[in-house]
Amino acid sequence: MDWVKEFYRKQNQLSKECYSSEVEDYHKDKVSIISKYHDSNKRIRILDLGSGGGQHAAAMAMLDNTEVVAVELLEELCSHTKDLKQKHHLNNLTIICEDFYRLQFKQEFDIVTYYDGFGIGDDEDQRKLLKLISSWLKPESGRAFIEVYTSWFALSSSLRPVDIFRDVRRQYSYDFANNRLEDSWWSETKDNKRVTQTLRSYTPPDFRLLLEGTGLKEEFSIPCMAQADEWCYPKGDCWCKAITFMSSLSHL
Fold this sequence. Notes:
Blueprint: H1 4-14, H2 25-31, H3 33-36, E1 44-49, H4 55-61, E2 66-72, H5 75-87, E3 93-97, E4 111-114, H6 123-136, E5 143-149, H7 151-157, E6 163-165, E7 168-175, E8 180-187, E9 195-200, H8 204-210, E10 216-223, E11 225-226, E12 230-231, E13 244-251
Helix pairs in contact: 2-4
């Protein structure tokens, strides 16, 4: 997992700061699942892992009666989250700039979320994280929402042409031996060193097998992000086009 910091920092630079956007409607759409399992008359604590530029965390903090803790590794992305907090007057949003594998919390959370990042490392790394999530959740009512990349998108991505954004290039590939999506970025005119992220992808049945021994079970899964940059959640059942799926987890 040594590539993580370098990749996300470089990706943010090459994409003209893709993690530095405002809170958009699609961020609000994705976190709207929280509202379905949250009584707005009751205050809940939410932990957002790998929060990036903080758009999802801010969108959850905009919901009624929420207290959100956003955890992100890169300082520049935490800085943008702080900007969103100040701009939208989100006093219920706390930002922690740290590796979430190293964190301990005195209070348990009602909800833990992980958007667009699960799959870093191997299966044992995923199980380690899932066990941590289990320990962070309230034992009776706690629920986690984990966004997972689909194996069929990872496979089909290797057939895509190189994406061109001015002088920047982006190329997807597929690691057949390990069922991993590979996403490479580089510049044609500046430092042309490639940076690549590699994420373990899953089918829903394989993801359920991953849960064994973690103390968690899957309540349901739904297609989330669809190809052609359309957000199919919560519009309907479009598994065949799903880039990712959202898995809802609770304690055994």
